[in-house]
Write a structure and sequence with these properties.
- The structure is a single chain.
- Among the domains are: 193 residues, GH92 mannosidase domain (GH92 mannosidase fold, 2-Layer Sandwich); 277 residues, Beta-galactosidase, Chain A, domain 5.
- 26% of the residues lie in helices and 22% in strands.
- The protein has 18 helices and 34 strands.
- The chain has a nine-stranded antiparallel beta sheet. A seven-stranded antiparallel beta sheet has the order 1-3-4-10-17-14-15, with no helix packed on it. A six-stranded mixed beta sheet has the order 19-29-30-34-31-32.
- The chain is globular and about 80 Å long.
Amino acid sequence: MGTTAAAVVAGAVAATPVHAAAPEAVDEIDPMIGALTTGADTACGKTFPGPVTPFGLVQLGPDTVSGGDNGSGYSADMTTIEGFSFTHMGGVGCYGDLGNLQVMPQTGPLVTGRDAAKSPFTKSSEVARAGYYAVTLDRYRVRAELTAAARAGILRFTFQDAGTGRIKVDLSRRVGYDGTHSVAQHMKQVDAHTIEGWMRCDRLGGGWICGNGPYYTVYFSLQFQQPIRTLGVWEGNRVDHDVREWTTVATSSGFFVELPVRAGQQVLVKSGISYTSVDGARANRERDISGWDFDGTAKAARKKWADAIGKVSVTGGTADQRKIFNTALYHTMIDPRVVSDVDSGDKYGRRTIFSGWDVFRSEFPLLTIIDDRVVSDQINTLMELTRTGAVRGLAKWELLGIDTGTMLGDPAVNVIAEAVAKGIKGFDAEAAYRMCRDVALGPAERSNRNDFANWHRLGYAVETSLSNTVENAYSDFALARMAEKLGHRDDAVKLHATAKNYRNVFNHDVGWFRGRNADGSWMDANSGCIESNPEQQGWFVPHDVPGLIELAGGQQKFVDRLNGIFERTPPEQMMKWNENYNHSNEPVHQMPFMFTYAGAPWLTQKWSRYVCDNAYRTGPAGLAGNDDCGQMSAWYVFAAAGFYPVSPVSGVYVLGSPIFATTTFRTSRNRDFTIKREGDGIYVQSAQLNGRGLNRAWITHEEVMSGGTLTMRMGAEPNKAWGSDPKNAPPA
């Protein structure tokens, strides 16, 4: 039997004493954290452990599975590997996509079938670190090593035995492959070392959510260090040798190269990829990995990660806490990945994989602090897709140039409005506003808002009623803020009014939120929500917490109800999908920080630390749910640092309980903002901002971006006087 999820959890490294010497931060990154797609006893992070550079196009890595709800194509509880593909999606739910250009070394007879050719491996032979992955394939007695640059990857295979070595390249593989749909593909040998071609993937046969994905082509320019001696192709069980150019449409097909190898000989293979052209793939390879220096490429990848995560640095904490933190920071810098070629001439870096409903909550707010260029790039990409007609409205969940329509709300509006409110440049704010306005105010044919007509006719959504209503209400508030910033006052008045529509799905008879039918009748407590329930979803009113407090019956009832949810979520439930505080999914992520709005910041300190301590671990089972393209990880970065954006567009961060002695953010303005923790315990006793006493339990985005030091003095017991004065409550 293979390693089980439970065994993986049990194998987590024990906490290291605070005084232990810490390695460099980049060496504390563990790409195995969250790398699990299966397991009944724990939620699954669905990250992948292969090498990538920050926001890199190439995301090279091992594949343990094709098909099913295994979006990353890798799960740490599986013990066979089918190959190493150049594209992955990390942390996504559903069936995923990509997983193209799969390379696998072999010895012995040619085995073409992907499943039949799998090799067992010993878990102890795996090495995963920033920019590098290695494993020993027991069946073929080959040590496989992988590293990557931004738009190219390189593999080094060490054959332990003399004989015939083989490199098999599967052109038909996709991670969501169902075994019935074909992939059009082409290959051509262009010189003694190089094979180029493409794979054309339709919306089926492995597409996002089994048919709602993009139509895309992956172009490749692949080189072997040794001259190609024997070249063949296969399609199903048919094998042809000495084929120099080949085009087919098939479910199982590709090409292979054979060469004599000595015991201990290393065989290197590298490729650039592109979504534009073979020329683009070739240029990407030549620019990013011009030679055959595998170790140099791995060293460069490590350096890129050291620089990237250096934007947020910590001291103190345990070894496990630093590993969790630095890996979380790493995971926030995987997507949205760059998609343009090195020679594209683009005025901005086109990006892809915008998991909007997830990442508007924490990941993009984090990027507004440390890397606002990524934010503006993403906004330009979203605008271009709308401008060209590829997307109606603004994409909710963009993947390779289309809107998959996954999830709900208007996350692109949220991200754009937040960027404008925070003064981020690099895109046409007025043009962006017009696109956002079309989504929220119409006309209907230019909006992709769920249940647009009922939103304006009834004042609430009927389709997935409660979830859509509260999500739309926040987006309208965000856009109202953007309208005010840009001087569109009449629109701002309208939008502030519809931002209150959340009140129309509060059922006063039951004292909480419920979905609502078109005739005004109420749905039951099990209806009207997506991936949540009314008790969880009703708390998503981040833009008007005072209004929510009023509906809940005042501050004490608000606090009691919210506190009860956490008290009903014991530690053993925090790593599981559950009916109470379900950290595995995004609608609850702001909840620990909402106590502060009701004058109880000590409960924010208590429960935010509780989530940090119980929903994040080391090891493959270390994430409480799908990482969702960095959202789950970004939450930890904020909370462990000691602050969080409940309402990102408002530019306000509610203070929590910092874990580390110091956490320093190097902002996009090239200034340092440090949160300094003094004393032990989880409760704030007092605070100073730049040497002056701070009596409020929140700070502003401008205070962070201006740099300085926030000192928080901690203790074992709550100081209920600090930050609880209603006059110092966080503003909307």
